[in-house]
Amino acid sequence: MPDRARFLNVIERTDDERMLRASGLMFFTLALTGCASAFPSAAFTLDGGAASYPVMLSRTTARDPGRPVRAAGGTHGFGNLMTAETPAPSALRAQVRADEWLQLDSVQFVALDTSTYVVRFGSPHASDRMLLLEATAHRTEPRGDRRQTVGAPR
Amino acid sequence: MSQRSSRWTVHLAALPVSLLVTGCYATQNRVTLAPLETKRPVSASSAYVDADGRVVSKDQYTLIRPFTFERAVTGERHSETVTALDVEREIDQLLGETHADAATQVTVTAVDYDSGSHTSAANWKWAGWLFEANAAVLFAYGVTADTHDQRVVCYGAGGVVAGIGVLSYLVSFLQDDPSTWRFRVEGQLVEKRAGSN
Predict the structure, then answer these.
(1) Quick one: which H or E segment has residue B137?
(2) Who among A56, A107, A140 is closest to B41 (CB)?
């Protein structure tokens, strides 16, 4: 019996410890969730991704006029509801052909908060966060054919 | 028109007025980035176009060092603000200090957006307008009241409510925290390998 009691005691203690660990983990997760920023940075990152062609942020003069490409993406919130679109950089890169490179002409981060009040209908709050991109896709010139860039060679 | 019918007119007018009292406040904070006028090429991808117009891929250069810096752009609440993101000088300085040929893999990440006092200021403004609307209704009741005592009560209550409305609207001016975009700019400074042309 003493052995059985000790055995049961161990089991109970183990269960208690497990519960404690589980509770601790739960509180830690909740704390992390509470501390985490609600802002979806991934949707508002201007980057070149895995593109192997140039995505020029500095002004580069090309010989060909190129073709304009544009993309927009972001989040739209209304009250507690939020919808997200495809990130703009991904949408822009999807429009680039294999033999092209990109000159970014305009980048805009836009935040628009609108609070409207209607008596008896409450105060709906709308929040839009957008990344708008405009670029020109230029043809990659064959070797030996050169274009000029701003930026003096050293 | 008798006083009774006048009072009913006020009652009937008050309902649509209270339904129609609306307000709309908007804060727009727009941050723009035009093509950078840097002395050396800056690319968001691993490849860049060099000063001679050639495409330089990542196997044609070596990493000098990565860099990162942050920027914050603020805008007044309940207004429209357009600000150019100033990253040119810092990137140019980094390129100059390290004698780098270019900056590649440059990312601009909006790490946070804080709408500041947009909502709280809107709530205080609405409170102000609503109290004023209610004060107007009380004054209208006072005009059509039957007795002097009723008029005194209506005007008195209307005055107090109007005062609360003015105070509420004034409090909205204390709620003036600006909206703020926070950006992190990261990238790497690179040097073209010798003989990689």
Answers:
(1) helix B118-143
(2) A56
